[in-house]
Amino acid sequence: MPKTKKAQKLAEAARSRSQSRARGRFKESVTAPKGYKASGFSLYTRHLNFVDQITHALKTHGMPKANKSLVVQQALERLEEDLRGMGTAEEYVRYFLEKQAKRTAEA
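The structure corresponding to this sequence follows.
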């Protein structure tokens, strides 16, 4: 869908402002660490509440720099461990279907 003229002008103005501010404020560009990439995704409220609960527990019990990213990264590490050795899409599907069936049965 083509942008309207107003949207194009606003986008150009924003780019121009950010470039001129960056030139005046930073001597060198700031980049993310190698192997790191920011990502946004959606979570169910109950999952986000759980992440918040774990983050709070970590912060108040000896890990003051703990954050949501740390908790999610650790959860992904656990998933990676669970999936290690599986190499086909069928194995991944079977893993997730079995996990969903188990959760449904326990509910």
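Helices lie at 5-25, 45-60, 68-83, 89-106.
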